[in-house]
Design goal:
363 residues, alpha/beta, FAD/NAD(P)-binding domain, D-Amino Acid Oxidase, Chain A, domain 2, 2 domains, seven-stranded mixed beta sheet, six-stranded mixed beta sheet, 11 helices, 19 strands, globular, binds flavin-adenine dinucleotide, FAD-bd, Monooxygenase, monooxygenase, monooxygenase activity, oxidoreductase
């Protein structure tokens, strides 16, 4: 059995590796001229780490990732919550550069014998299992996977009903040297919030041994705070302790408004849609890649040993099994994005962490 996959992001690569592990052949088409990750840092919780273990990428990810001792939320300088992570009885949470995570998954894909094509953009697919490429090729497969991100061409070509949404906030993501921010609380993840003199948030985390990842949230309506290059004075007016890191940003960074997708169905015939193309969510719970990887692995498990004729039914069964958790996580993330409720502290014992506690299919 053979799969043609659009998009060499986390979802596309994990699906390809998991299919190869189950005896399929898999070819991944990436529109970019290089295989690389976009963005700065990333948080991967327990559930995503389990998937990385299942596809043989965990050791390379853990080697060089950062395991913080705790996760603190501060609002206008006041500690709102603190939770331990990465110790007995607590969630695992690794932070790393996106490129570090991507390189580890890409190496696992190469080891697994996944075929990779760059400069190979998809323009659509048909439910009978044909992937259409921008260079004119029409590739017949037993299974086509649209893992081509939030603006998915494969999804759009199938005209699957669904909704896309933008939010009131956006984020600038940067990696900078840790500089003097080392030791004590500076070794923790710190979710800094301020509502005066303006509404801003910096999710601060060491990322690897000597670099620091900052996800800097600013309202779309705040032109000065959402501007690139970052103005250190604007941000230091809320977070003076972070001035050394803010001044190290220079011209780096890009401001991205949160975008989400929710589809009525995740498949059409023998085409499956997975990852951000199916279920992009606001980054409030840091679960977009976690859910993308869980569903990509779950997809491979669902089609294992299934005959060609039974594939469409297997895709429906995959969605029925995996979707409730993704819908729940996406809705929780959307609520937290719309209300900025994380400023009150991390709701550690609440159901918003259902995905983190989940043991993913195939792990
Ligand atoms: C600010 C922010 C912070 C985030 N932080 C976290 C976090 O800490 N933890 C977490 O789990 N998630 C996080 N996420 C979410 C996470 O980045 C995404 O959910 C994840 O990248 C989705 O992976 P994907 O493979 O589905 O899509 P993508 O990563 O977007 O990959 C899609 C791939 O398809 C390629 N492509 C696009 N169009 C085509 C085409 N037509 N043909 C072929 N290839 C194509 C793209 O170039 C890309 O390589 C964050 C998101 C944002 C916006």
């Amino acid at each position: 059995m053979h799969a043609e996959i659009a998009g060499a992001g986390f979802a596309g690569l994990v699906a390809a590796i998991a299919l190869r592990q189950r005896g399929w052949t898999a070819r991944v088409h990436e529109i970019d001229t290089e295989l690389r990750a976009f963005g700065a840092g990333i948080f991967i919780w327990d559930n995503g780490l389990r998937v990385l273990q299942a596809i043989g990428a965990y050791d390379a990810v853990a080697d060089g990732a950062y395991a913080a001792p705790g996760y603190r939320t501060e609002r206008n300088g006041v500690c709102m919550s603190f939770g331990k992570v990465n110790s007995e009885g607590h969630f695992r949470l690794l932070t790393m550069s996106r490129q570090h995570l991507y390189s580890a998954i890409l190496a696992a894909a190469r080891r697994a014998g996944v075929e990779l094509e760059t400069n190979s953009g998809a323009i659509g697919a048909t439910p009978d299992g044909v992937l259409h490429l921008a260079d004119g090729r029409r590739l017949q497969a037993d299974l086509v996977i649209g893992a081509d991100g939030v603006r998915s061409a494969v999804r759009e070509s199938l005209a699957l009903p669904g909704a896309r949404k933008k939010y009131i906030d956006g984020i600038i993501r940067v990696l900078v040297p840790r500089g003097p921010l080392v030791g004590g609380r500076w070794d923790e993840v710190i979710d800094f919030w301020a509502f005066a003199p303006r509404t801003l948030r910096i999710l601060y985390t060491p990322c690897g041994t000597d670099s620091l990842y900052m996800a800097m949230m600013a309202p779309v309506a705040d032109a000065a705070a959402s501007a690139i290059p970052v103005d250190p004075d604007v941000w230091a007016s809320c977070f003076p302790d972070l001035r050394p890191a803010l001044e190290a940003i220079g011209t780096k960074g890009r401001y991205d408004v949160y975008e989400t997708t929710r589809l009525e169905r995740w498949s059409a015939g023998r085409v499956a849609i997975v990852g951000d193309s199916a279920h992009a969510m606001p980054p409030t719970l840091a679960q977009g890649a976690g859910c993308a990887m869980m569903n990509a692995l779950g997809l491979a498990v669902a089609v294992e040993g299934v005959s060609r004729n039974d594939l469409p039914a297997a895709l429906a069964a995959w969605e029925a099994r995996e979707r409730p958790l993704t819908d729940h996580t996406q809705s929780s993330a959307a609520h937290l994005a719309a209300t900025r409720a994380l400023a009150e502290g991390m709701p550690w014992d609440s159901d918003v962490f259902r995905a983190v506690r989940h043991v993913p299919t195939g792990t």
